[in-house]
Design goal:
The protein has 216 residues and is an alpha+beta fold. It has two domains: 3-94, Beta Barrel (Ribosomal Protein L25, Chain P); 100-177, Ribosomal protein L25, C-terminal domain (RNA Polymerase Alpha Subunit, Chain A, domain 2, Beta Complex). 25% of the residues lie in helices and 38% in strands. The protein has four helices and 13 strands.
C-alpha cells in the first residue's frame, strides 16, 4: 500500500482558544493514539490536504521531531460552511499487527451486460479489509467480465489472499443496470420474435385452409 510522509509538531497547549489560533495560521490540531500515550499534534492544513483530498488510501509516516510513527488517518472533522479541516485523529499502527482499513475498489474487464447495452455501476467505492500491512494492496481488483444484464457482484463472492472482508456479505460491489438502449434492444428482439411467430402461424393456417376439402 502507498505511504505518505507528513510533518507534525507538538502542541504547546490545548483547548478551544489555542485551536482557533492554530486554524487562523492554517494549521490543524491533531491527536495520535493507539500504541502509546495519546499525543497532541499540529500539522499544516495544505500538507494534510494531500492525504485527505484523494481517492487513494495511504499509510502515514508521521514525522514528529526526530521520530517517525506509522499511522492511519482515523477520523477527520470539517467546518460545516467553509469545509476547512478542523481536526484530525491518527491511529498508530505497526507492521506486525493486522489492521482494519478501507481500500478502494477497481473494476476490471468488459462486462457482458455492457456489451448488451447495459451500464456498469460501481456500487461500493471502498471495502473494509482486515490484514497485515504487507498484504494490503493499493486497490481491490474485481473482475466484472462475466457480469450479465441485471446481475451484480456481492462481497460474499469475493476473495482476496491474506485479507478478510469486513463489510456485510450481501453488500453489492458492482452491478450492470438495464439502460434505455438495452430496453429498446430487448423490446426490438421481442417484437421480431412475435413477428416471426405470427408469420409462422399465418403460414400454418394458410396451409391448413388449402388442404381442407371442399364442402359438397
Amino acid at each position: 500500500m502507498k505511504s505518505i510522509e507528513l510533518n507534525a509538531g507538538l502542541r504547546d497547549s490545548v483547548g478551544k482558544k489555542n485551536s482557533k489560533l492554530l486554524r487562523k495560521q492554517e494549521k490543524v490540531p491533531c491527536i495520535i493514539y493507539g500504541k502509546r500515550e495519546p499525543m497532541h499534534l499540529v500539522v499544516d492544513e495544505k500538507e494534510l490536504g494531500h492525504l485527505v483530498y484523494t481517492p487513494d488510501v495511504f499509510l502515514v509516516n508521521l514525522k514528529i521531531g526526530d521520530q517517525t510513527r506509522l499511522a492511519l488517518l482515523q477520523d477527520i472533522q470539517f467546518h460545516p460552511v467553509s469545509d476547512h479541516i478542523l481536526h484530525a485523529d491518527f491511529l498508530e499502527i505497526d507492521d506486525q499487527s493486522p489492521i482494519k482499513i478501507q481500500v478502494p475498489v477497481q473494476l476490471e474487464g468488459f462486462a457482458k451486460g455492457v456489451q448488451s447495452g447495459g451500464k456498469l455501476k460501481l456500487e461500493s467505492r471502498r471495502l473494509t479489509v482486515f490484514g497485515l500491512i504487507k498484504d494490503l494492496p493499493d486497490h481491490l481488483k474485481v473482475d466484472v467480465s462475466d457480469l450479465e444484464l441485471g446481475q451484480s457482484i456481492k462481497v460474499k463472492e469475493l476473495d482476496f489472499e491474506n485479507l478478510e472482508l469486513i463489510d456485510p456479505k450481501n453488500t453489492v460491489v458492482a452491478s450492470v443496470k438495464l439502460t434505455r438502449v438495452a430496453k429498446g434492444m430487448s423490446l426490438e428482439t421481442e417484437t421480431e420474435a412475435e413477428g416471426e411467430i405470427s408469420e409462422e402461424a399465418e403460414t400454418v393456417e394458410g396451409e391448413a385452409t388449402e388442404e381442407k376439402p371442399a364442402e359438397e
